[in-house]
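Dear colleague,

Thank you for sharing your sequence with our group. We've completed the structure prediction you requested, and as agreed, I am returning the results in plain text so they can be pasted directly into your records. Please verify that the sequence below matches your submission; if there's any discrepancy, let me know and we will rerun it promptly.
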Amino acid sequence: RHELGPADAQNQPRGGRYLLETAVEVRTPIYKIFQSAIFWDVGNVWQDEPKKFYANLEHAVGIGLRFKTPVGPVRIDAAIPVTESSNKNIQWHLTIGEAF
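Please find the predicted structure tokens below.
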């Protein structure tokens, strides 16, 4: 999400007015408080209203580990973009609490 959409002269995302994002995630119990996850994320950001938004959506797939703590779930994810226009570096994410 933070790397999508229109970019400035330094190729840094500058945001947009329209956002579309969705995800599918499958979790599997591992042991007690631990779960594994696989996911597929889809979306993009546009400055102008997209005429055919489905034509330039970005896709990423990944795996993750979930574990329950007294302060809420902790998520550790590794994802890789799969769209031709994306850079193919693995992206790591750490989240505390539910992702919405």
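Summary note from our side: Strands lie at 18-31, 34-46, 58-69, 72-81, 91-96.

Kind regards,
the structure core
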